[in-house]
Amino acid sequence: MSRGPVLLLGALGGVLVTSCSLLTSHPAPGTRIPTGVEVSGLLTQAVDLVQGGDLDGLCELGGGNCQRILEENRDAVPTDAPTILGSSVLHPEQHGDAWSVGGRILEVCGTDGLGDPYRTAMLFFFNENDQLRITEPVYWSRMRIATGSIAEPNMQQAGEGC
């Protein structure tokens, strides 16, 4: 299996259409946003796990829905690393007494194991134990993230890059 380079490309754009919300009861205004280097490193780890056949290990990097999402996409496991189209910062927001978790969203794309193109938005964040995690590490799942609080967009226009 080849492991192509993961490229960080930048431009403007990206419409995020599916809701993703992580809430925590402790105040989060000081939540550390992962750097591009930290996020790229964890994505590389995820790709290495997939290419090594360790899909259970992949789910250890993410959220509680990973096994379900993986089962829905198990027949389409890609052999090549995704291309990073860009990133944006998602700032934490207060919702009553709880906070949504902030982080960095990566927009990735590639071709899945069935030969179909995919484009996925992945949220990378630090959990309450200061461990870097991915909301859903199944990078070929075509998941999207909808939010009104994205800052520092660095996304390519739809159709560019992959």
Description:
- This protein is an alpha+beta fold.
- Helices cover 18% and strands 27% of the residues.
- It has three helices and eight strands, in the order βαααβββββββ.
- It has helices at residues 36-51, 55-59, 66-73; strands at 23-24, 83-90, 93-95, 98-100, 103-111, 117-126, 132-134, 150-154.
- Strand 3 and strand 4 form a beta hairpin.
- The chain is globular, with a radius of gyration of 15 Å.
Total helical segments: 3
Tell me, briefly, the overall form: globular
Mean pLDDT across the residues is 79
- Listing every helix as H and every strand as E from the N terminus to the C terminus, the arrangement reads EHHHEEEEEEE
Strand order of the largest sheet: 7-6-5-2-8
Give a quick precis of the structure.
The chain is α+β, with helices and mostly antiparallel strands and 162 residues long. The protein has helices at residues 36-51, 55-59, 66-73; strands at 23-24, 83-90, 93-95, 98-100, 103-111, 117-126, 132-134, 150-154. It contains three helices and eight strands; from the N terminus they run βαααβββββββ.
